Amino acid sequence: MCGRYATTRSSGELSALFESSDDTEGVVRPDHNVAPTDRVPLVRVSPEGHRSLCAGRWGLLPHWSRSAAGAARMINARAETVATSRAYAGSFARRRCLVPADGWYEWVRQPDGRRQAYYMTPTDGSVLALAGIWSVWQSGADSRLTFSVLTTAALGDLAEVHDRMPVLLPPERWSSWLAPTDEPERLLVPASAERLAGLEIRPVGAAVGDVRNDGPQLIARVSVPPTVTPQELTLF
Q1: Phi/psi class of residue 156: alpha, beta or left (left: φ > 0; alpha: ψ in -120 to 50)?
Q2: Whole-structure pTM over 0.70, yes or no?
Q3: d(Cα 47, Cα 136) in Å, to the nearest integer?
Q4: Shortest CA distance to 189 belongs to which of 208, 209, 172?
């Protein structure tokens, strides 16, 4: 899954990178520790037909949801079932978006019980576009733009960190992902070997595990202590 990520570029920089209008209304801020239900930038096609940078909440709420209570459980949609899921199928067919990110986090449990955090990010500092789907949920005066990130089976070295990874969209596929199509399943193309080779798997500190923490120190590389097996621990 993808349960935490970073997006630190300004709305002006993102609108330039994605060739979109800036409709975030000043609410986008750098966030090194995006958590479920946080309000963050996404790129979608506006009703007028142009690319629009908007602020949406992470955790898709289908329009028929009775409450917003389940949003935190809807942050990821599996690419293998997104086209048939009652919660996600409508958005996948008609409301796809790009989710700008600097990188994402995963945790690996060590044999001695410790959880080591890793940050996956492009080595060249370029922006990532995670494949997303969006929906608008409304209850009375409460109207929310919400979204989920699509995930797929992890490839290459990423599989050593977690068995899932976000669906990554290179710039040449942004337009097709956003465009209407009768066969959206054909858009779910695995990341290329070249794209995967350009990702750094960086060990980072434990502070990212607390959603209250933020700042560039969260993505700083740390030294990983040697792995200690449970058998070795019993020797002392």
Answers
A1: left
A2: yes
A3: 13
A4: 172
